Amino acid sequence: MLEFSILLPALLNGLTIGAVYALVALGLTLIYGVLHIINFAHGSMLMLALYGVFFLHALFGIDPYVSLLIVPPALFVLGYALQRGVIGRASHGKDENILLVTLGLAIVMDNLALYFWKADTRTIDTPYGFDTVDLGIATIAVPKAVAFVAALLICCALWLLMARTDLCKAIRALAKERQGAQLVGINVPHLFAMSFGIGAACVGAAACLLLPSFYVAPDVGQVFVLIAFTVVVLGGMGSFAGALIGGMIIGVTESIGGLFLGESLGQLGIFVIFIAVLLFRPTGLLGHRA
Amino acid sequence: MTERNRSRGIGRRQLLAAGSTAALVAGVGGFPAILKAQAPAIKVGILHPVTGPLAYSGTQARAGATMAIEAINAAGGIKSMGGAKLEAVLGDAQSKPDVGAAEVEKMNEAGVSAIIGPFASGIALATTQAAAKHNIPHIVDVGVVDQVVTRGLANTFRFGPGLAKVVDTAIANLVALNAASATKAKTVMIVHEESAFGSGMAKTLNEQLPQKGFEILETISHPNPTRDFDNIALKIKARKPDLIIPSNYYGEFVLLARTLRQQKVEAKAIYSILGGAASNFRFVNEFEDAAQYIIDCNHWVDPRKPEAAALRKKVEDQKLFFTYEVFLNHECVRLLADALERGKSSKREDITAALTSSSWAGHMMPYGPTKFVNGQNEGAAPVNTQIIGKDIKVIFPAAFADAKPVFPMPARG
Questions:
Q1: I need a surface site. Which of A68, A132, A153, B298 has the fewest CB within 10 A?
Q2: B192 and B272 inside one domain
Q3: B121 near B145, Cβ under 8 Å?
Q4: Residue B34: is its pLDDT beyond 50?
Q5: Residue A123: which of B230, B254, B262 has the nearest Cβ?
Q6: Residue B190's pLDDT is what?
Q7: Does residue B223 or residue B272 have the better pLDDT?
């Protein structure tokens, strides 16, 4: 049965979820855009970041939003170290090796989390966990509203960073022409690691925004990683604006689909879009032809 | 043998002489403990999903079983068998039926006398079947789906109530609660997870509730895991049912209850049946506000029995939550110990015979003495609990109740 009275709230709900999807996908698209690799460990890094936020709250009482000052920098360091110390070294410059190394890393991270923290689902309770913002047409939970605004701000900040700073001009140069970048003196391994680090930091930020309204478990990354890949493919590999628009489209598709077709069938829409994009616009909405 | 070897090594005669002397010394008074026959340990398979999506429940279940084994051993073991100790052989079904069946094979190799577990219905269907091949008596702790005991497996014994019994009791109690209330509940929305457990429950409720005068406005299913319950909460808010009946596992139940609270959805009652979190102190502790007044029809102890209070204290002293997985498994081990005491044997067929004729009344559950008919403990029944403040109270049936029901629940604002 159609529920038009709740269509607008469902649409808003889809946009709030979509913003977080976009944030997760942003890191993935950045890593792809520069390194030209699909990072299978992306979901596992999100899982680690969520545990980081959880333990900071559980052990030290640090609010997840305050963790935005701690977890993204920590993830940046982890991402940088992983690229410099493991992925870069183990791949020997071959893309297919990088793919396998990131897949291996994902398996190791997931299983270490399972060993140390068990498969238990953990949540946190914050003072604002039940607060809502009444927009007249809909009531949105405060954590979701914060996640939406913060995700948009982070997307804009990242876009500005990539457009305005020398570091990121170098990253973009590296993305377009690796050999040329090397010839003009750009430190390629350092920039590769910086890109991976920034991508990981995005995941760290997403974790801080997610945990007040979501849970963490060792397999939680798998919940998001498929969606993130769909968002990246839909928006166009390597495109920031594409990731943002893609995230919103996927969020709204999931929400409206769930409303009309039921929660189980509603998620079908996401993968129908994924297949349709691959068939009719393989470069994505804002992607460039190779 | 050369002269040199004789001088340095121990000869056959010397060895025999030394051996006989040692035996003589030991027999006379040297080491009586070594020679006195010690009753061999009885191996018990403790099989649960301690990893995978059901890990929380599996870990709780394992804790309950091992606690009971430790308590029985500390109290002198199985007295009729010379104080034989129980030895847990732990297995992890990894939340998968096929892995559960493979664990049964390993336990058979390890020589277990019986198996207790494995929490989930899907896994129980596989493990009981696998145990039947080797005639291993299998006490099912939870596994509510009725097919667990309707396949004619002589080795299967379910201590707790089955799904049909739970749903029948839940509906009967709901009708009674409604009849006693000044404002009657008429309309219902059901939210269930889509596996065999939730779907089976929804089907039965759709068949039975209209016969009792309730109108089902909508039945909503959701997958496991579900990331977001906002749309479901919005649907419920738009249709304003008197009763919300959720039937899902822990994670989804918590997310749904929190979202209902966030979206300020009001109803006369959230009436859960075998709710994943509705009779769980962890939920009450972590989300007291969202948990308030939720009613559940579920497995629970008889609150009047001192053993139940003692076990709760023991469990909480170990920093664990007192959940049904813990006490059901604790009592399943004690049920097995009773069968061993009476049967005086750790042979599988003797344990099966002792369980078949079991009439154990020493448990802490709100059941009568055990009586297995086709593997089902006929006396087993669920009770209705309600979260009131920081506690879970039994509200129905009156014979076991330690609180009056709050029905309809006050507006939560």
A1: A153
A2: yes
A3: yes
A4: no
A5: B254
A6: 96
A7: B272
Q: The tokens of B137 are what?
A: 């008596």
Per CATH, which fold does A4-280 belong to?
A: ABC transporter involved in vitamin B12 uptake, BtuC (1.10.3470)
CATH number of residue B257's parent domain? 3.40.50.2300
- What's the gap in Å between the CA of B231 and the closest CA on chain A? 6
Q: Is the pLDDT of residue B32 over 90?
A: no
Q: Would the CB atoms of B235 and A3 count as touching at under 8 Å?
A: yes
Same structural domain for residues B146 and B291? no
CB-based burial, B132-142: b 16+ in 10 Å, e otherwise: beeebbbbbbb
Q: Which residue has the tokens 């709230």?
A: A9
Residues in B closer than 8 angstroms to A267, CB to CB, are 223
pLDDT at A52 over 50: yes
Choose among B227, B235, B264: nearest Cβ to A6.
B235
Do B78 and B217 belong together in one domain?
A: no
**How many angstroms separate the CA atoms of A262 and B248, rounded?**
16
DSSP B178-229: HHHSSSPP-EEEEEEESSHHHHHHHHHHHHHTGGGT-EEEEEEEE-SS-S--
Closest residue by Cα to residue A27 from A143, A121, A151, A140 = A151
pLDDT tens string A144-186? 899 999 999 998 888 888 778 888 788 878 877 878 888 888 8
Phi then psi for residue A210, to 5 deg, are: -80, -45
Contacts of B221 in chain A (CB under 8 A): 262-264
pLDDT at B317: 95
Distance CA B97, CA B94 (A): 8
In sequence order, the 6+-apart residues with CB closer than 8 A to the CB of A125 are B286, B287
Whether the CA torsion B199, A263, A237, A18 is positive or negative: it is negative
Which of A279-288, B98-107, B259-268, B294-303 is least confident?
Answer: A279-288
Element spanning B28, H or E: helix B12-28
Structural domain boundaries in chain A: 4-280
- Cα B199 to the chain's mean position, in Å? 21
**Structural domain of B87:** 42-161+304-377
No. of helices (H) and no. of strands (E), chain B: 15, 14
User: A44 and A221 in contact (C-beta within 8 Å)?
Assistant: yes
The answer for A 127-166 residues in CB contact with B (under 8 A) is 129-130, 132, 139, 141
- C-alpha–C-alpha distance, residues B66 and B333, integer Å: 9
Is the same domain home to B315 and B369? yes
* Interacting residues of B5 by C-beta distance below 8 A, sequence separation 6+: none
Residue the block writes with tokens 């009849």: B179
Nearest to A263 among B223, B261, B289 (CB): B223
**Structure confidence at residue B194 as a pLDDT band (50, 70, 90):** confident
Q: What pLDDT, on a 0 to 100 scale, did the predictor assign at position B33?
A: 44
What is the domain count for chain B? Answer: 2
The predicted model scores a pTM of 0.77
The pLDDT tens digits of the residues spanning B115-173 come to: 999 999 889 999 999 999 999 999 999 999 889 999 999 999 999 999 889 999 999 99
